[in-house]
Design goal:
The protein is of the alpha+beta class. Among the domains are: about 40 residues; about 170 residues, Penicillin-binding protein 2a (Domain 2) (Alpha-Beta Complex); about 190 residues, DD-peptidase/beta-lactamase superfamily (Beta-lactamase, 3-Layer(aba) Sandwich). It is built from 25 helices and 25 strands. Strands 4, 5, 6, 7, 12, 20 and 21 form a seven-stranded mixed β-sheet that branches. α5 packs across α6, α12 packs antiparallel against α25 and α18 packs across α21.
Length: about 650
């Protein structure tokens, strides 16, 4: 019985194929084998099984695949295997891409690249011999000015199997780089990496807004694995916000190196792609003027700090922004020392503090145009509503009328009968106490509507500016007071926030954008410093379009009245009359003198003197610029902030512009 034949017949469906071997009867089986019998094996019928054909095809396919693999190994990678066989190898290195430059609106360079040399090593490529590695550490120490121990610690910090580049010494001099290259035979595992180093031509004026670049941190590297651990990345400001636009794409080069690590020849090269350029809305001429004027105003007032910002009310573009004092962004770009950094942190004038976007200040009477808008829009007052300003407001305690709280205005004898126009023009505190918090039979806005309108103008929340970090400021409410104080909200709290005092805080940037919303007829924009992204060849990649936060803050009739009051302030009121005389266009504005101490202020004490504010726009009938000036602890806004604004606006409207 043919067991195997029956098995295959059942399992695979083969039909039995009987074979007949015809051999001469006189020869035995072994003789036939030894003689190599040529007797033919005859099949009674041909084999046509489909399974047999499939098996044959599989064998053919396997053979072809094997042939293809052998061809790949021999032809495609033969060169690399040949290199390995001879002790050579292929090394791939990255080629740094130039970072995009930053320009002002007129093409003036604000940030550009310079070559920076870094000594780099990949620990996994170091010699296996401890002695050889030690010789390299000693030589590197001699060439860079470090100690051998420092070099060893830096290189071995991540282990000798670490396969990514480590910077041994950054920002080495050109002479040091040349010396290292000359000793390359002794330092075959090391290389001098040429990277773009940032140079800020403006130095300190725009530093808080441009930001700076620095070595990527471990945390940042986790978020951006496409970078190398030795790469630089935007750390703050516009450098950080537009990192993906400014950063280029690295190139690569494959080089054949011999067994000692010396290059033999270049095998392949992919060129790097430069980053795109960033065009700002900043006007460098205006920026420089603002810087000089604010510095002068601070010195005149005997102050030590201040800020200013100018924006285009038609689209939210920032035209100029000043923090004083500031810091030099080049310190960070080149690698700031610990001593330098601690010096900046310990400076009492806070040069690292971005006053324009992060400074939370009481803004005083500059809020009065916004409170007027709210009261008119809510129907609390109209154009004919009047209040008697006697210089003070006496408010009896509701539980004990014998206790009277006195809320004073800035003018002891009072301003007499005032309506909304006169109240803005002459900055009547009494009018806005009553409009905001009510008095006797007059019902004011009250805390809820007041705070809602502040937030409608953008106070109490970040503006969304493209420079990154900013403060939201603070708009107090009965709810927030309940969380921080055992005392309930009182009418006095409402009076205080009605004139920009109390716990209310805002940034110069918020004040500028809120003023712009009045100037342009009711549109609140998101501010932005950048206007366009372009290639290195000048082709526009994308424009930075205006972003509207709120399209209609109030009715045209309401805003028209408020504007008239702000024009009156410059024509004949608290901001008169230098602007009227010296600026070649009509200006509208509002002064502010914001107290900074609950004990009042002492004119001889620079810590308790009020902040001097002025917010303005011009031309009054067709606004193209909004300007906010702050001089910290200076005194009256009309005395210190208005003259500074006058000089800035005079320059702006006396200089031809594109």
């Amino acid at each position: 019985m043919n067991i195997f034949g029956d098995f295959y017949d059942r399992a695979y469906g083969f039909r039995s194929s009987k074979k007949e071997v015809r051999m001469r009867q006189s020869e035995d089986w072994s003789a036939a084998i030894m003689a190599g019998s040529s007797e033919k094996i005859q099949l009674e019928e041909p084999i046509r099984s489909p399974m047999y054909i499939l098996l044959l095809l599989l064998i053919v396919v396997f053979a072809l695949a094997l042939l293809a693999r052998l061809s790949y190994l021999q032809i495609i990678t033969g060169q690399q295997h040949s290199l390995l066989a001879s002790g050579n190898r292929v090394r791939t290195t990255a080629i740094a891409a130039p970072r995009g430059a930053i320009y002002d609106r007129n093409g003036v360079v604000l940030a550009r690249n310079n070559a920076r040399f870094d000594l780099v090593v990949i620990p996994a490529q170091l010699p296996l011999s401890v002695e050889k590695r030690a010789e390299g550490y000693t030589l590197v120490a001699q060439l860079t000015g470090k100690t051998t121990a420092e070099v060893k610690t830096i290189i071995e910090s991540k282990g000798l199997r670490y396969s990514l580049p480590i910077v041994v010494s950054e920002n080495i001099s050109r002479d040091q780089a040349l010396n290292i290259e000359e000793r390359h035979n002794e330092l075959v595992s090391y290389s001098v990496d040429t990277n773009p180093s940032r140079e800020y031509l403006d130095g300190s004026s725009l530093a808080p807004f441009l930001g700076y670049i620095g070595r990527i941190s471990a945390e940042e590297y986790q978020l951006h694995p496409e970078y190398r651990p030795i790469d630089s990345i935007g750390k703050t400001g516009l450098e950080k916000s537009y990192e993906s636009d400014l950063r280029g794409i690295y190139g690569k080069e494959q080089t054949e190196v011999d067994a000692t690590g010396l290059p033999v020849r270049s095998l392949a090269r992919v060129e790097p792609q430069a980053g795109n350029n960033l065009i700002l809305s900043i006007d460098k001429g205006l920026q420089d003027t603002m810087q000089q004027v604010v510095k002068s105003a601070i010195e005149t007032a005997g102050s030590n700090a201040g800020a200013a910002i100018a924006v285009d009310p038609r689209n939210g573009q920032v035209l100029g922004a000043v923090n004083y004092p500031s810091y030099d962004g080049n310190l960070f770009a080149k690698g700031i020392t610990q001593a330098q950094y601690e010096g900046l942190l310990g400076d009492p004038s806070k040069p690292l503090f971005n006053r324009v976007a992060s400074g939370g200040y009481p803004i005083g009477s500059t809020v009065k145009p916004f409170i007027s808008t709210a009261a008119l829009q809510e129907g609390v007052i109209n154009s004919t509503t009047t209040v008697q300003d006697k210089g003070h407001l006496d408010v009896p305690n509701i539980y004990n009328p014998s206790i009277v709280y006195v809320f004073k205005g800035w003018k002891p004898e009072g301003l007499g009968t005032v309506n909304v126009l006169r109240a803005i023009t002459w900055s009547s505190d009494i009018f806005f106490y009553i409009v905001g918090g009510g008095f006797e039979n007059t019902k004011g806005l009250g805390p809820t509507r007041l705070t809602d309108w502040y937030k409608r103008f953008g106070f109490g929340k970040v503006t969304g500016a493209d420079i990154g970090d900013e403060s939201s400021g603070f708009v107090p409410t009965p709810e927030t007071k309940k969380k921080t104080s055992d005392d309930p909200w009182s009418v006095g709290d409402t009076y205080n926030i009605s004139i920009g005092q109390g716990d209310m805080r805002a940034t110069p940037l918020q004040l500028a954008m809120a003023t712009a919303a009045i100037a342009n007829g009711g549109t609140l924009y998101k501010p932005h410093f950048a206007s366009e992204v372009r290639t290195d060849q000048g082709v526009t990649v994308r424009p930075i379009s205006p972003e509207v936060i709120l399209a209609s803050i109030a009715s045209p009739a309401t805003l028209s009245l408020v504007k008239q009051g702000m024009e009156g302030a410059v024509e004949s009121g608290t901001a008169c009359c230098s602007l009227k005389r010296e600026v070649p266009v009509k200006v509208a504005g509002k002064t502010g003198t914001a107290e900074t101490s609950s004990q009042g202020f002492d004119s001889k004490n620079p810590v308790t003197k009020p902040h001097a504010w002025f917010t303005a726009y011009a031309p009054a009938d067709n606004p193209k610029i909004v300007l906010v000036v702050l001089v910290e602890h200076a005194g009256e806004g009309a005395e210190y902030a208005v003259p500074a604004a006058k000089d800035i606006l005079k320059y702006y409207f006396s200089t031809p512009r594109n």
